[in-house]
Amino acid sequence: MSGIKIKGTGRFVPAKAITNEYLSTIVDTNDEWITSRTGIKTRFHCTTETHTDMCVGAARQALENAGIKPEEIGACVVATFSADYLSPSAGCMLQRELGLPHDTVCFDLNAACSGFLFALHTMECLLAAAPRKYGLVLGAEMLSRFINWEDRGTCVLFGDGAGAVVVEWREDYPSIHALLGCHGDPNMLGVTGAEKPAPARIFMHGQPTFKFAVQAVPYCIDQVLERSGKTMDDVDFFVFHQANARIIDLAVRKYHIPPEKYYKNIQKYGNTSAASIPLVISELHDLGKVGPGSRILVVGFGGGLTWGGALIEFA
Length: 315
Ligand code: ACO
Fold this sequence. Notes:
Elements (H helix, E strand, L loop, with lengths): L2 E10 L3 E4 H7 L4 H8 L3 E4 L5 H16 L6 E7 L10 H9 L6 E5 L5 H14 L5 E9 L9 H4 L4 E11 L8 E4 L6 E3 L10 E3 L1 H23 L8 E4 L4 H11 L10 H4 L6 H11 L8 E8 L3 E9 L1
Parallel strand pairs: 1-13, 4-5, 4-6, 11-12
Antiparallel strand pairs: 1-7, 2-3, 6-7, 8-13, 9-10, 12-13
Helix pairs in contact: 3-4, 7-8
The protein binds acetyl coenzyme *A.
């Protein structure tokens, strides 16, 4: 046995809220459509804040919450595809801003909306070999820089934000039993890159992505329970990637998950890709809905296509 548990959580969201009413003044949309199709009411976009500011804000809060000092961190992984620079990575910028030791392994990882789960699994593997057994895992996105304002099907969905957890690796902790997968598809959803002239823009075929998501969620839940040898009753809280309230509602109905065991904050933040899962975890922690001893089943899905699930406990 060996694995990681969460010691502390933090988050940062930029100041500027973008309401559905405001969007309806710049594109052909309305609050009724956005709310009924997605559950989103507001999302936040960076104006003066940078991606690095968001990472630093979330990471500092997580360190303080965990009672861990930067010099105790052995590895730092940031799940993102929207950092301030293609290089240096957001991880390297965090090393600088937080004063992490120079031998701390710091890097970024891109698995779109599943990125935080890929980063948690990577951290569990990394810390096994690291000299210091605390790790920083972030999901951070500044998607506002990629929004295609000529596509009403996507421009209403996405927001900016960052969430962070400090994890501790120990030989007597259980593994998070991560299940991760991908199916390479450059056409379904993503951000245009080197193959297209700048600027990079988000694209998505909504309906097939929706179908993919509603299959990926139960697959991940079933696989994680099977791998960990746990049942639905062993799970204290279910945390889903916040892409669409309807996707969460379908999973909740399928598994008869009671209201006190899941949470939605998509109405406030929209889809923040890799940041969405740690934003949920951090809010739940602050609300006292999860804490020492809690076991959460986390599910993500998104561009790539990618998907992932894990069972993670709080220390
Ligand atoms: N306002 C008003 N009307 C709109 C808007 C809008 N913002 N956007 C689209 N419409 C219209 C369309 O033009 C279409 O009109 P038509 O019937 O006259 O042609 C109609 O609404 C229906 O459009 P659909 O795209 O079929 O709408 P759908 O019900 O599928 O909802 C949505 C779209 C919300 C995007 C949904 O498909 C979805 O949530 N998909 C999954 C998203 C997801 O899970 N993504 C994965 C993670 S994201 C990542 O990894 C970065």
